[in-house]
Amino acid sequence: MGRGILNRMVGIRLRDKGRVYYFDPGELELRKGDKVVADTAWGITFGTVCSWHEKTANQSCTKDLKAILRKITPDDEVKINSNQKIEQESLSYCLERIAQRGLNMKLVDSEHLLDGSKLIFYFTADERIDFRELVKDLANRFRLRIEMKQVGVRDEARMFAGFGCCGRQFCCSTFLSEFEPVTIRMARSQDMTLNPAKISGVCGRLMCCIAFEYNAKETNSPEEGNQPTAKTCGPPDQTGRENNNVPANGEKTRGRRRRRRNRKREGGATDNA
């Protein structure tokens, strides 16, 4: 298949965890599950092919993509194993220095780039952290360029991975490439129990599956026999608040029944007068 006909890009999950990034495969013939070495904005690292996309040339989808350098070689595998030992050592040492300096931050992970040019530490924090002295400690110990990256709690859960309340692996660490906004309205439209313990994930945020199940429900066409539920979110009322009492199958709303009872009472009072 010629490159002049189709622009190609592949989705790579770097270090077998974290989000999916898209790269230009060049002339490489890749399959899903292949291990590759890629050139990223922060250095050379490795990852696994998890998706494949082909677009027509006029969409120029590979214009600004970084390149995949090669498939992983035996020498690369040896270097990856060596780097993993350095990452474990750097995590332990960094945790010690954080405790000794009393920094209010949580260390999540470390990454030693494949080319050995940089050591990256990922952390979460509720406030701005002055880690300049910590970086000096790490640089003196490992004699490498040190970079500190702050991530969110959802990225933290994706890096750690694990199993959700459904018994399956986290969606974010298996197939989700981006975090979509998740709202209470999405959970309400699916008749879910609005109990934070029931609808929150390990990260403490609303579960990601609420969003894509909501989107799947919205895309179902009425020709497939889908009927609206009784608790459908309606448009805002005159006060600007969301109306959650939209009737299904011709039911009367509470407001209509209340107004009808009031009219009957007013009519009875007029007759008695």
Overview of this structure, please?
The chain has 3 domains: 6-72, no CATH class; 78-151; 157-217, no CATH class. The chain is 32% helix and 22% strand. It has helices at 74-101, 132-142, 153-160, 184-189, 196-199, 208-219, 254-272, and strands at 6-14, 20-24, 35-40, 43-56, 66-71, 106-112, 118-124, 145-150. Helix 1 crosses helix 2. The N and C termini lie far apart (90 Å). 15% of the residues are buried. Residues 1-6, 56-60 and 223-252 have low confidence and may be disordered.
Helix content, binned percent = 25-40%
Uncertain ranges: 1-6, 56-60, 223-252
Shape: flat
Biggest β-sheet strands, sense, barrel = 5 strands, mixed, barrel
| Alpha carbon gap, first and last residue | 90 Å
Arrangement of strands in the largest sheet: 1-2-5-3-4
Output the structural class. alpha+beta
Q: Report strand %.
A: 15-25%
- How big is the Rg? 27 Å
Number of strands: 8
Task: Jot down its keywords.
273 residues, three-stranded mixed beta sheet, 22% strand, disordered N terminus
What would a concise description of this structure say?
The protein is of the alpha+beta class and 273 residues long. The protein contains 7 helices and 8 strands; from the N terminus they run E-E-E-E-E-H-E-E-H-E-H-H-H-H-H.
Summarize the topology.
Layout: E1 6-14, E2 20-24, E3 35-40, E4 43-56, E5 66-71, H1 74-101, E6 106-112, E7 118-124, H2 132-142, E8 145-150, H3 153-160, H4 184-189, H5 196-199, H6 208-219, H7 254-272
Parallel strand pairs: 2-5, 7-8
Antiparallel strand pairs: 1-2, 1-4, 3-4, 3-5, 6-7
Helix pairs in contact: 1-2
